[in-house]
Write a structure and sequence with these properties.
52% helix; mainly alpha; 5 helices; 115 residues
């Protein structure tokens, strides 16, 4: 049996089917909050209501509201569903497409490995 301590509960949870939530640190929460605000602005620019987005995604209005608040407990798949309705899902493909740090680390390794 696995013991899990969630951020919502200080007591160990020994249920095997319990849900665990991700720990979102304050710096990362700011990013999620900004993402939620961007999604909300995109929805409003299109004159879509939360109810319309809810109907088109199959998500509850509460979940749509949580996404617009940048709630880290909402699954990435739900964020994708909302972005899809807004016509913005392709923006996710841009994440890490220009990985500056990764390229620098790769270059350092390449420079050290050959003369």
């Amino acid at each position: 049996m696995i013991t899990v301590v969630t951020s919502m509960d200080s007591k160990p949870n020994t249920q095997s089917n319990s849900k665990r939530s991700a720990v979102v640190f304050p710096k990362n929460q700011k990013v999620l909050t900004q993402l939620g605000e961007n999604i909300k602005l995109a929805r409003k620019r299109r004159h879509y209501t939360q109810s319309l987005v809810s109907e088109r995604t199959g998500l509850s209005r509460l979940t749509v509201r949580k996404i617009e608040q940048g709630d880290g407990k909402v699954s990435l798949g739900h964020y994708v569903a909302v972005l899809s309705v807004l016509g913005l899902v392709e923006d996710l493909a841009k994440v890490a497409s220009d990985d500056e740090l990764g390229r620098k680390l790769q270059d350092i390794k390449l420079m050290g490995g050959s003369s």
